[in-house]
Every structure is written in structure tokens, then in C-alpha cells.
TrEMBL record, chain A:
Name of this protein: Sugar ABC transporter permease
GO biological process assignments: transmembrane transport
Domain ABC transmembrane type-1 span(s) in chain numbering: 91-303
Protein family according to the UniProt entry: Belongs to the binding-protein-dependent transport system permease family.
Organism: Halorubrum lipolyticum DSM 21995
Keyword Transport carried by entry: yes
InterPro entries: MetI-like (IPR000515), MetI-like_sf (IPR035906)
Keyword Transmembrane helix among UniProt keywords: yes
GO CC list: plasma membrane
Membrane topology: Multi-pass membrane protein
TrEMBL record, chain B:
Main localization (coarse): membrane
Organism whose genome encodes this protein: Halorubrum lipolyticum DSM 21995
UniProt name for this protein: Sugar ABC transporter permease
Location in or out of the cell: Cell membrane
Family, per entry: Belongs to the binding-protein-dependent transport system permease family.
GO cellular component, one term: plasma membrane
Keywords, comma-separated and alphabetical: Cell membrane, Membrane, Transmembrane, Transmembrane helix, Transport
InterPro entries per UniProt: ABC_transporter_permease (IPR051393), MetI-like (IPR000515), MetI-like_sf (IPR035906)
């Protein structure tokens, strides 16, 4: 490939460099780029088409191609206005559980992984604990839904425990938010533990060993050595967990259940947006989809590397 | 200093013990299995218990348990406790607005009911088709993309970012995009095949097509993930293997087929397991596609049927039974995978 060869054209002009690059470009190389660009288009077109559609008026949707931008006469911000009005409270509710659940599950995952990686105890027993934890990542959540509903509605009477909160004038539907935080933390422990464990396994032993020889307790080793070195992995885990929790529909559907609830998360409202008896309002759907995806899109654009690392682990 | 202890540790370490990774730490030297328990006479019962546990499980067992045990119990309660509870509920006749299941009368009625329910059989078949076609297709696309990107191209990062972008989006969001793409009158899918003189096709309305339309959309969303996993696998293959194949005069295609792809077995297995799990979670996508518990006709899978039976029809016990079947399917994939990873010492 062109850029792996040594560069000798330090002071060459842009055009000269371009020409040389073109000369080196073989048919095969050009074909490679064509394929890659086509693939990129394949991944981007659904998103791009959604974006342009969200700015179109009803007539522009019918008259223009789905991926073409709206003309000046077909441009409208009205759908975005409606989408924001409908979804804004959902965004607030989603943040209310996604942020605490993300932070708590990342921290819990870190200490769990530490306890299962750095201290010395029998490998065969450790493997059993680890297997049970890792299998927890892959459980289809359908297998726990009915008990989960039973648990939150019949057994754990959280809304009575939190009655002092409702006395402050907060709607008691917000008990769903608390339940979502606990639920997401419990089901997030496995993946967070696995991510931190892969990181701690590669950590250098030297420092930890000498600290242990000096009589430092495990707690001290964690606080003074392991935790300060966990920064990069915390970034990965926080980003991964936030995306997962924000995007999840199933638990919100089961725990909060109705989109008319004051505590309804954004995904729940979005799932029912834009469909009415008269037909589907696609511009509104697209605007809503983009608005609801803004936080995860922002996270992806700013921390794409960490996201890739999180999914690949 | 450190070396001395390490040597000491190695010599006193019992050769038969299956201790953890070789790690010389103070704890082992002072009260590890080899040196025997400290014999202070005034130790109370709890200390003796702790020593006994540490002897059984390893030197740091008790001290480390405060880190991993509470989260492990919380997770165990919500995952395994719930699965067992779910199994119990599936043996009852719990339905409608009964407050709690009646556990005094347990039978397999719900499972026989499932076998007699043609909707269940269809959903099970659809689940299998979805899992196999989606996983195989996604792996193939991901592998091709990874190989193309690995050829030392420019803008590698930009391409990678674009390919992985759909994965950061919620199923709820991508379902809206695909609903628009598959729209009969104005969707892109029909305008694309229209340029070849085909169609228009009712992608989501035709029972024979809808499942494959959904699989295609899911492949769009997750092939970037497969690419990232394969890319990591490709980067781990030493350069010499490529060069050796070139020297032998193998064509590029042959080199990948014979030399490179066989070495990606580990990446393939782990990506396949994760993808199958994503496939089983396609509930979110199908729910958002129709905006309700009933997915488009012909695209019902066990995940959607379970939630519909339990939360729309209030057949709690029947829903639980379907969930157990789904769990069994997941287990048949995860179990061997975990054993495989354990054997490779990769846990």
C-alpha cells in the first residue's frame, strides 16, 4: 500500500504528492477503496436517510427521494419541535437511572474483578465463581422477567419504603426509576466484572507483590495501587454500560410499563411515537429517533476508541 | 528481596496443590497451606473457621471475599435465583390477576401446552432461523470487512468508526430507521430494487420475507462488531505467516482461506456466542418495529412470544415456560463456550 513505503518527498507540493500516490495506486488498491466506500455508504444511508427525513414536510416525504435532502419549500423543524416536546421528560427520566446505574455497576464490577483476580486463592474454586458470573452476561433476560415483576410488585415493597420521598411531592411512579437502577446494576455486574478482569490480569504484579510483602491489606492495595491504575478501563466500562442501559427497552417496559407514566424513559415513549390511526408519521419518528439517540451518539463520537474496546472484550 | 521470597515460596509450595497463578505474597508465607495454620492457643472459633476456610480455598480467600462475595450474591440472586423461581412459576398455573402463583400444585402442563401450540412451534423455528442466519451472515460480513481494513489502508480509523456506528444505537432507534427503509411506497429498499426493475416488495407485510428483512437489519447493526473482533484476531497473527504463504506462491484468496482464516477460530467462536445472544435479544427491535407486543406476522420469535404471553395475555406461567425453553437454548450455546474458554485457561 502507498503509505507503508518510505516517504522521500518531504517538501513536495500537494499536487506532486497526490500524483505520486495516484501512480502507486494499483487497480487492486483502487478497487479496495471503492468497496470500502460502498460499505461505508451501506452503514450510513439508513442513518442519513433518517436525518434528512426528519426535516421534511409531509408532501416533501412523498415527492423527494428518501435519502435526498428536502428542498427549501419542504424544510420544516416542526417535527423536531414535537419530538423534543414529547421526549424531553423521557430524556430526563432516562438520565435519572442510566447515570447512577452506570456509575454504581462500573464501581462494583471493579471491586468484584479485583477480588477475583489479584488475591491468591484456589483456581478451581475461582473458576466456578467466574463461570457463574460470566454465564450471567449471556442469560436471555426473558428467563428472569416474570420473577422480576413478582419481586418488585409483590415482595420488595419499595414504594412503601420510599413513602417519605412521595411525601415531598414527587410522583410515586418514580419508584420505577429506583427499581431500574437496582435491576441494571445487578444485571450489569457480570459484564463489568469481565471487562475489569481482562484488564487486571495484565496488570504488573511487581508493585502489588511488594506492597503485600510489606503487609498492606487487600483493601489498601486496591485503594492505593489498583484503583488509581484503573482509569482507562473505567472509561471503557462507563461508556459501554451507559450505552447499554440507555438503549435497553425490555426492563423499562416491564418495570415502568406505560409510556404515559410520568417516570417513562425515553425509549419507552419513542417506541410508541408517530404511530396513530391515520398512519405513520415518519418524519416525527425519525426526529424522535435522533433525539433519543443523541446521548449515545455523542458518547460514540467522542469516545469511539473506548467503545470499540468495550465491545471487543 | 522480592526474589528471595519468590524462591522461598516456590520451594515451600506443595507440588500437588492447584494454587493460583504463581504469586509470591506475604500471606502465603505467613499462613499459607504449606506452613500450616498458626497455632496460637487463644484463637477464638471464628478465627479458627477463617483459618480452616483459608486452608481449603487459598490464603486470601477470606480477606478477598468482602470484595467479590456481596456483588456475586446480588448477581446470583437476580440471575440464578430468578431463573429457578421462573422454573417454579412455569410449573404452576399462574395467570390473570392472581396475586401470586400457587406453588402447591406443580406439573408440566405449560410445557405440553407449548408443544401443542402452533404459534410456539413457529416462534421456535423462527428463533433458530434468526440465530443461525443472523450469526453466520454477520460473521461473514465482519470477516470480509476486517480483512479489507487490515490491508494497511488509509483512513482506517474513519472506516472502522463508520462501520461500528450502528452498534451504538438502540434497537428502538434503529427499528425506526428500518421501518422507514422498508416502507412500501417511499422506502429506500423498494427504490433500490426498483432500479433493477424489481418490486415493489412489501418487506414487513409479507410473511415469507419479513424474518429475512429483520435479519438483514440486525446484520447491518452488528457486522461492525464482528469486524472489530476479527480485526483484533488478525492483528494477533504474526506477519511471517503472510510472508511465508506469499513465498510459497499462494494467491491472496488462497492465503486467507488456508492460512489466515483457520487461525481466527477463537475470534469466530467468541463473536458467534455474543451474536447469538444479541439475536435472542432481538425483542427490543421487533417490539419497536410494530410499536406493540405483536411483531409483524411471520417474525414472531420466542423472545417476543414470551413477553406477549406474560404481559399482554397475562398467562404468566405459560410465559415462564417459554422463557425456560429460551434459557435452555441459550445454555446449550453458553455452556460449551465457557468450558472451552476454561480449557484454554481464558476465564
Amino acid at each position: 500500500m502507498s503509505d507503508s513505503e518510505p516517504r522521500t518527498d518531504g517538501g513536495a507540493t500537494t499536487i506532486g504528492r497526490l500524483r505520486r500516490n495516484l501512480d502507486r495506486m494499483t487497480v487492486e488498491g483502487a478497487g479496495l477503496y471503492v468497496v470500502l466506500v460502498f460499505a461505508a455508504a451501506f452503514y450510513l444511508v439508513p442513518i442519513e436517510s433518517g436525518l434528512v427525513t426528519s426535516f421534511k414536510t409531509g408532501t416533501a416525504i412523498i415527492q423527494t427521494a428518501p435519502f435526498a435532502p428536502p428542498g427549501p419549500s419542504g424544510l420544516t423543524f416542526e417535527k423536531w419541535q414535537t419530538a423534543i416536546d414529547t421526549l424531553l421528560r423521557g430524556m430526563g427520566n432516562s438520565l435519572l437511572y442510566a447515570v447512577p446505574a452506570t456509575v454504581i455497576s462500573a464501581f462494583v464490577g471493579s471491586i468484584t474483578a479485583y477480588g477475583l483476580t489479584i488475591p491468591t486463592w484456589k483456581k478451581s474454586y475461582k473458576a466456578v465463581v467466574l463461570m457463574l458470573i460470566i454465564a450471567g452476561i449471556f442469560i436471555p433476560y426473558q428467563a428472569v422477567l416474570v420473577p422480576l415483576t413478582q419481586f418488585w410488585s409483590q415482595w420488595a415493597q419499595l414504594d412503601q419504603v420510599l413513602s417519605f420521598v412521595w411525601a415531598l411531592g414527587i410522583d410515586d411512579d418514580y419508584v420505577g426509576i429506583v427499581e431500574l437502577v437496582i435491576t441494571h446494576v445487578a444485571y450489569g455486574i457480570p459484564i463489568c466484572t469481565l471487562l475489569f478482569r481482562t484488564y487486571y490480569k495484565t496488570m504488573s504484579d511487581e508493585m502489588i507483590e511488594s506492597a503485600r510483602l510489606d503487609g498492606a491489606t487487600l483493601r489498601r492495595v486496591y485503594r492505593r495501587i489498583v484503583l488509581p491504575l484503573s482509569g482507562p478501563m473505567f472509561a471503557v466500562v462507563l461508556i459501554y454500560q451507559f450505552t447499554q442501559i440507555w438503549n435497553d427497552l425490555l426492563f423499562t417496559l416491564v418495570i415502568v410499563s406505560t409510556e404515559s407514566s410520568p417516570a417513562a424513559p425515553v425509549v419507552l415513549i419513542l417506541a410508541g411515537l408517530g404511530s396513530s390511526l391515520e398512519g405513520q408519521d415518519f418524519a416525527l419518528r425519525m426526529a424522535g429517533a435522533f433525539f433519543a439517540a443523541l446521548p449515545t451518539l455523542a458518547v460514540y463520537i467522542f469516545f469511539g476508541e473506548e467503545f470499540a474496546e468495550g465491545v471487543a472484550a | 528481596m522480592l526474589d528471595f521470597y519468590r524462591r522461598l515460596y516456590r520451594t515451600i509450595r506443595p507440588s500437588s496443590g492447584d494454587g493460583d497463578e504463581v504469586r509470591a505474597d506475604g500471606g502465603v508465607v505467613s499462613d499459607g497451606p504449606a506452613t500450616g495454620p498458626p497455632t496460637e492457643p487463644d484463637r477464638d472459633a471464628t478465627a479458627r473457621l477463617k483459618a480452616a476456610l483459608d486452608r481449603r480455598f487459598g490464603s486470601d480467600f477470606m480477606e478477598s471475599s468482602i470484595f467479590w462475595l456481596p456483588p456475586f450474591l446480588l448477581m446470583g440472586l437476580f440471575v440464578y435465583g430468578a431463573v429457578i423461581w421462573n422454573l417454579l412459576i412455569s410449573l404452576t398455573d399462574y395467570q390473570r390477576f392472581e396475586n401470586a402463583p400457587d406453588y402447591s400444585d406443580l406439573d408440566f402442563e405449560m410445557y405440553t401446552r407449548a408443544l401443542a401450540d402452533s404459534g410456539f412451534i413457529d416462534a421456535a423455528v423462527n428463533t433458530l432461523i434468526l440465530l443461525i442466519a443472523f450469526t453466520a451472515g454477520t460473521l461473514a460480513v465482519g470477516l470480509v470487512l476486517a480483512i479489507l481494513i487490515d490491508r494497511g489502508i488509509r483512513f482506517e480509523n474513519s472506516f472502522r468508526t463508520i462501520y461500528l456506528l450502528p452498534m451504538s444505537l438502540s434497537f428502538v432507534v434503529t427499528a425506526q430507521f428500518w421501518l422507514w427503509i422498508y416502507n412500501y411506497n417511499n422506502g429506500i429498499a423498494n427504490s433500490v430494487i426498483g432500479t433493477f426493475g424489481l418490486g415493489p416488495v412489501s418487506w414487513l407485510g409479507n410473511q415469507d420475507i419479513v424474518l429475512y428483512a429483520v435479519i438483514f437489519a440486525l446484520m447491518w447493526q452488528f457486522s461492525g462488531y464482528a469486524m472489530v473482533v476479527y480485526l483484533a484476531g488478525l492483528r494477533a497473527i504474526p506477519r511471517e505467516h503472510y510472508e511465508a504463504a506469499k513465498v510459497d506462491g499462494a494467491s491472496t484468496l488462497k492465503m486467507y482461506w488456508r492460512v489466515i482464516i483457520p487461525q481466527l477460530k477463537g475470534a469466530t467462536i467468541s463473536a458467534a456466542v455474543v451474536l447469538m445472544v444479541f439475536g435472542m435479544k432481538a425483542f427490543d427491535f421487533l417490539y419497536s418495529l410494530s410499536g406493540g407486543y405483536r411483531p409483524p406476522n411471520g417474525a414472531d420469535i420466542l423472545a417476543t412470544k414470551m413477553v406477549r404471553e406474560a404481559y399482554a395475555n397475562l398467562n404468566w406461567a405459560y410465559g415462564s415456560a417459554i422463557a425456560i425453553v429460551l434459557f435452555g437454548m441459550a445454555l446449550s450455546v453458553i455452556g460449551p463456550y465457557l468450558v472451552y474458554e476454561y480449557r484454554r485457561d481464558n476465564l
